[in-house]
Task: structure prediction
Amino acid sequence: MSSVLSPSMPSDEVSRLDTCERTPRSIPSADGHWLLGSAREFAHAPHLFVAEQGRRNGGLTQFRVLHKRFLATASPDVAHQILVTHREHYERSAHYKRLGLLIGNGLAASEGSTWRKRRALINPLLRGEHLKQLVPTVCDSVCEVLKDWENKRMEGTPIGMVRETQRLAMGAISRMLLSTDISQDTSHRLGNAMREAMRLLREYNTSLFPIPLSCPVHRNRRFNGHRETLDRFIDGHIKSRRTDGQPDKPDFLSVLMAAEDPDSGERLPQQALIDETKTLFLAGFETTSSAMSWSLYLLASHPECAAKWQEEVDRVLQGRLPQWDDLPKLSYITQVLQETMRLYPPFYTLARQCVREDRIAGYTIPKFATILISVYGIHRDAAWGSDREEFRPERFARKADIPRTAYIPFATGKHVCVGNDFTMTEMITTLAILGQRYRLTRADDKPVEAKAQIGLVPAREIPVYLELRK
Result:
């Protein structure tokens, strides 16, 4: 499957940015409270605040949260330099390391040699034959969930799209990762634990007075409880494989357990195995469920787009379930998902720390500076045109029309998301099945705002009525 990432910036454009001014300028500062700085605005809606500040001053603004200083950018060109052309000057910030409080020292929270080894180990799981196996797995998982949807439809009861897309995503990742079916109650419990833990972790990152998680205050007890819920689920499956004599299964966990370090020949120790399994579980659930929620919300809100979606499904599939070879032909579904992730990116901000002094667009970036790259702002850059706030999947019909460097839903550069093709495969397959079966009608016309968690998720449930297609 072709990548959804934009092409690299031309070298002459990089040179122009590097030499735009011979004398470095001071990075302008945002106005803020004399003591708190911009803490309140940042904590309230980080995706909006960083995007707003990042659009100013030619693409770089500094702001303060109490004693901590950050840089913000929403410039596609500046972001490209940080993530790609000057990537040796930057590494992932402490925000990612704190993610390790939930998932351990897995791929998403590690750096250096640990990251390189884990990336080399996990990358093959999400490519090639493993990716092809995902399509029938998703078909089985979605069809199982639709049995309950059909009961709701016959009762005339709307379904909650946010909760149900969590269930769809968790069902697929549970089967691929652990060869297990997951009940509706377990799906809700695990989904709630992961999202609540991420919400509390974000509050910790933006707190005016962060209290170490080792202190037994109410917020920390809640976070630790959610983490233990996830740990028990994952650890239980790993222990069952090792102690109960269960045979190897055709899933990711078996591959991880059998994988050997190319240098030492050693297998992953128990804690590393738990960390990487949790990382895959969280990433496979969160990115997919939030993007699916938004895509179905947008399709239900735009009947003309829904008609094109269903026409394509009927033409390509001819009434059968999707197969691997069908996915490239489902181009409009791909465009719907790309446009959804433009408006509601899976990762709304990327944080990088400068490890060696750099110069970008005439500004000196000091060592140890933390830069927040607003993917949300980049995806709504003026390069997208006057209709950039609108949902228009057709803008992705031709690759040449996508603004260069202004589309990075899965990041870019060294840390591009290893699961991007996995996620796209799962979502295209799911949308094809749903479009084949149902028409969607929103049960209310109230606006749905975005809420910042690990990604941008709907701030409330989205009730939708199902109509069986003839």
Summary: Confidence is low (pLDDT under 50) at residues 2-11, 16-21. The radius of gyration is 22 Å. Residues 270-301 form the longest helix (32 residues). Residues 135 and 389 are 32 Å apart (CA to CA).
